[in-house]
Batch of 2 targets.
Target 1
Amino acid sequence: MDLLMTEEEVRFRNEVRTFLDTHLDEGLKRAERLNPSFLADPAVGLKWQAKLNDKGWVAPSWPRQYGGTGWTLAERYIFDQECERAGEPHFRGASIKMIAPVIMRYGNEAQKSFYLPRILNGEDVWAQGYSEPGSGSDLASLKTRAVLDGDQYIVNGSKIWSTLAHHATRMFALVRTADTGKKQEGITFILIDLKSPGVTIRPIRSICGTHEFNQVFFDDVKVPVSDRIGEEGEGWDIAKYLLEFERGGAFAGGMLRAMLARLQRLASEPLPGGRKMIDDPLFMARFAEIATDVDANDMLELSAMSKVQAGGNPGSVPSSTMKIERSRIRQSIAELAASILGTDALRWEEHRPLHELPEGSEIDEECKVASAVYFNSRSQSIFGGSNEIQLEIIAKTLLR
Amino acid sequence: MDLNYSDEQLLLKESAERFLKERYDFEKRNKIIASETGVDAAIWSEMADLGWLALPFAEENGGLGGGPVEISLTMEAVGWALVVEPYLSSVILAGGLVEKLGSEEQRAEILGGLIAGTSRPALAHTERQTGFDLDNIAATATKSVDGYTISGEKPLVPGGSFADVFLVSATLDGTVKLFVVPADSAGLTSTQVKLVDGSRASDLVLDNVPVLASALLGAAADTLAEIEAAYDRANAALASEAVGIMDALMDATVAYTKERVQFGKPLAAFQALQHRMAEMAVKCQEARGSALLATLSVDAPRPMRIRGVSGARAKIGKVSRSVAQEAIQLHGAMGFSEEMPIGAWFRRLYAIENTFGTTADHLKRYGEIIRDPAMLSGSLLREPV
Ligand SMILES: Cc1cc2nc3c(=O)[nH]c(=O)nc-3n(C[C@H](O)[C@H](O)[C@H](O)COP(=O)(O)OP(=O)(O)OC[C@H]3O[C@@H](n4cnc5c(N)ncnc54)[C@H](O)[C@@H]3O)c2cc1C
């Protein structure tokens, strides 16, 4: 056992670093620093995505035949670490990491050849249509209905909390096509063009002051049967496959480390009274504790990765553990960062996106976004399967 | 020792809650914070009519002679309803200082206007570097022919954007003094700032602002000591406000989980969540105890006052954050959206943690006090005075 990179991997890392040095410009990095949300503002995200696409690096996890990189897991890990270190806008979300693997696995040839290139070049941005007002953790209770009428489905109902749906061109959605049998069995997976007649999008503002998610209403929306993924009633299995990517598939170690490095920079700056937080033992104890959490979480990730590389499966306990811990670590970093602001924590900048505001010093800007980041961090333990649901999964495995 | 509320106190609590329930629901409050001024003049004059603005002042000053307990009950209701009007900053902080330091004329004028609802004074003391070292003041006052000239910067003056008159601290011959500065004084600029909890403050800049000799408040008094005592009264009030918010979050969470059905059952039927709410209740009870100690310490000798007040702010800072985070978590995405008051309570608690000393400031201040073994080992019960 060891933690050594191969010579080849070191070369690869240096190549990635050089690319990021030259292509990830200050404007993009600043926009990301000033983004309180999980995903970048699409205008920013798509700009960065285009640059990655030119290099052929936009979808590191895809097989080469679909336009991916064909990298090993270790290379993908290194790439992610470097992107985070450099401060890339986070945008490779629902489109690249969620719906694409589903289309590759369950889609037919026509769907693959139409949708996958449009994801790579940014022509399509996808929203995830799972949750409904009455169905959150209990996803299988969903009610949005799709009725087959000739060669199309007529969809009626409503999805909620759909992140970035107001910027998205399409939504992948779970809909009910049957009421018989177990509730999981009547669920079908379809792709909805959000420009279709009958689609209405209502913005919802979150407690960090940003409009990031929405409620989406479907009123007799027509979806061609050719936009169904898999068979009717197969939606639940497909959804579970997708959730694996949402929860466990992402490398987070790099992101947490990058957040911690930002916090360290903030804490190294003299406060108005001349004091620095890194000289405060109480602060440093909390900071160091979080750093050990990051190391432990990163090791879990590397171990899971090694298992997969050797052809095994990491299992559900490590991936639920990582999801829980990742959210807690993000929340504690954000909380500690906000605690540095002192009285300035009271100031609230309403304008969104923050990067449209005139430029200030890096530290002033960190202060401007820190409260919003703290508020936003509370969602980490709710979305993508809440921490309570992850604990249920772990408990079930333990007590089986 | 008696820790029971009197019948009059319970009546006051009930009337405050009823008034805010009828006149200050969440929708109404959202309209107020979205408005140009961020304050509702009608509500303020109703508060005057109800006697809220007179509550803490002595009867000889036109007040109702209410003590810390009456203030704490009012502040719990203020917290619950998320009142953004400057009750704390104008009445308790600035009004309290005028009562302690003002001459008869100053009291008659400023307190008179405050109690009638026609004046809203604000204290402009702390500066960027002050933190909770209340003597760290850079603004200066110099003697002039007929009074003083004041210069300095006072950021984030609470209630400042609603104020017609400021109590500005500045060093005069090396000692901190307070001056009454009308908001329309020449050389004074006040910029409105929107705060994280929806309320407003102002950034004040004083550039050679001339004031008359009669503007000096409490010429002979130990002004710093009075300012510190006023902040302690305000901090005890904040502790009670936080308790009101925590109760509101607790009640809202219990009600929501009883309604919200997932997996065929109300969320409240899951034992995992029942225990989480029970833990929240434990924290609410603890906070209540701390806030009561703070309330009953504001008139005690300084070390005991600090133990009670800063101890409560430190303790409540921690437990209130945890209760607020849990409330959001148990509401799921609903708690993360602005549609429910959960997020607004959460943000107000966050603001409280950074008002008149941060949670860490108060923990340190408390830590200094309990270095004295007598203070640490002494009972909470006190000798009669
Ligand atoms: C920022 C954000 C972005 C989101 N983006 C999307 C998106 O793009 N698309 C989409 O479809 N959805 C999205 N969601 C919704 C998300 O998936 C749901 O919030 C999540 O599944 C929880 O559902 P809920 O909010 O309805 O909470 P509920 O299911 O009502 O749960 C409320 C609380 O009860 C707990 N709980 C529920 N059941 C149990 C149980 N049996 N035992 C113990 N505890 C339980 C939960 O953990 C939670 O703490 C987003 C949510 C957020 C906050």
Target 2
Amino acid sequence: MPNRTALMYCYDGSFEGLLCCVFESYEQKEIPLDILLPEMAQGILLPVKEIITDTAKAGRVLGSIPQKMGAPTLEFVRHAFLTCLAHKELYILLFLRLGYRYGPAVLSRLTDPVVDKLFKAVKHLAKESHLFKGFVRFSIFSNVLVAEIEPKNYVLPLLRQHFCERYPEEHFLIVDKTHGMGLVYRPYESAVIPIRKLELPEPDENEEYFRRLWRVFYDAVEIQGRHNPKCRMSLMPKRYWKYMTEFGSAQQKSPRRLEGSGGGKLHF
Amino acid sequence: MDIFDKLKILTDAAKYDVACTSSGVNKKAATGGIGSAAACGICHSFAGDGRCISLLKVLLTNVCAYDCKYCVNRRSNDTPRAAFTPRELADLTINFYRRNYIEGLFLSSGVLKTPDYTCEQMIEALRILREEYRFSGYIHAKAIPGADSALIARLGLLADRMSVNIELPSHNSLQLLAPDKSKHSILAPMGYIQNRIQENCTDIIRYHHAPKFVPAGQSTQMIIGATPETDFQILNLAEGLYRKYRLKRVFFSAYMPVAEDSLLPAPETKPPLLREHRLYQADWLLRFYGFTANELLDQQHQSFNPYIDPKCNWALNHMELFPLDVNRASYSDLLRVPGIGVISAKRIITARRTGRLQFDGLKKLGVVLKRAQYFITCGGKAPGGLKVTPDTVLQSLLSEKALGLYQHDFSHQTGMEQLSLFSPPSLLSSGGKQEDRGKCLTAPL
């Protein structure tokens, strides 16, 4: 087993890039102290090695994962890469090293600190993406359904199938403001694309009408004698409320902007 | 009356019904249609009372020919009345569904004119949704007691889940409080639905495209605390319903006074929420943990212990079965340990394939050691430094608040009956005498 070296890796932020870090780690028989994005690598005193993304190397690592550890492990790693876990890159590298050693059984090593850390992160991702299946609120602008979310994890890839199956005949867009990405759908075609700037128009009369009806329902369905805001908060933390029409909060303010440079084009 | 008023009145009238999950069936939208369903169920919001909102839960109408005394919509109650047209209801559902406010529709109704007429109106609303909007999302329909079985059958082909509410857990209470309903008018449609579901299963094996009848199964609900039935009776009834009618869920609803009547609890009575909670915990133990109603309660102990949950209570009364070694115990035995749930039991089975489990590892698997530590060993060893006295067990099993109440109750044991909520003053409802209690807490430790 190679020793941890006083060395950092720096990669381009892509999954392929991370796989190249794994390649490098095996080729050089070294384990980095951390794996950083370029903007974080500036001003670090320790030596930083830049790992160039090489499709051939990434492909070799990618192919070996299902072969050595089984397909579920690859899916697990792909999901781990979508989480907001700090130092997830390093944990994934350490996890894959365990995987090459133990094979598919690596997924059962639930008490191992590295496996445990990634499991909890993936669980957090799964939970958040499940909540968003319900908490996303679409507004309809000229027959296009548009929603905004601010998730902690990068959940869009996990929401894709659900919403495509739910609205096969609609045009819709879900904007992830945290990650500056959007899930765009038109009948029988979907894509996840960068969206850095988006201005939404004022909701029209029809849209306002159904938001008001929804608020009437939301308020009426509560049994006052069982009022329990603590329970509600633990099941639906406040950070989700911002875009939920039943509370009528941020939805009123417009036009809203997504700050950043460049512009994502939307074709419907 | 505009649609806002209708929605308000008909939501208000439907909100006491609990059966509001969207689980049990997986579907995709048909080509050219809208709507899918996820077997795990999806909550779209949570109301101010902390209850999940996943369906547009409304009544078609709150006009009712019946006069059930516990019901807010009873004929004799002076309350504003309204009715949706089937089309209004279908349009509202689709517009909420497109905006992702809901997972589908939960449709119940008061009895307008006759049970058959009401049922026909419900069928029309569902027909518009399914045929005109090609809606594949979740629909839960309430069977109207007394409606013709041919109509129930049509409703069942349009819905994903159906329910017939038991309402009151005994025949006597029904007679007293719901004179227009009878045991028969409730159990007959429930039995009919169960038969149709079963027939349909064999049809689907024979003909691949047989239309599905209530694919997500049926459920029921009963009101807790309006009538004198005990937890033991209620739990036995639930168990019988799971066995006989293969129900997917039995829901319990703590009675909220909505009417003044000499036969009912006083209007200022608080809903017995803790009792409802204990019944749900026990229901869980029946459905997922392999317990039977008779293990949890019996003739001598008809009520759940308010201080500790039913599983802890059971375990403390069966200390002869513990401690279990987590590295060897079977899945079904692990499930009986307080602090180990379905998920952590499965993880224990998985994780111990790769190596011997220790106490620090168990925590990572999600075991609540605070409760489990008194009932398990790892490789024959008890957790290090564990000082076990009856007090420490109590402190670990009870929340601070419950402990305070418990101690308060004990120091005031004067033979006076406490609030019925806290009636068994002993720690172990099945424990009986105090010396037994001391023995069972200390003996195995």
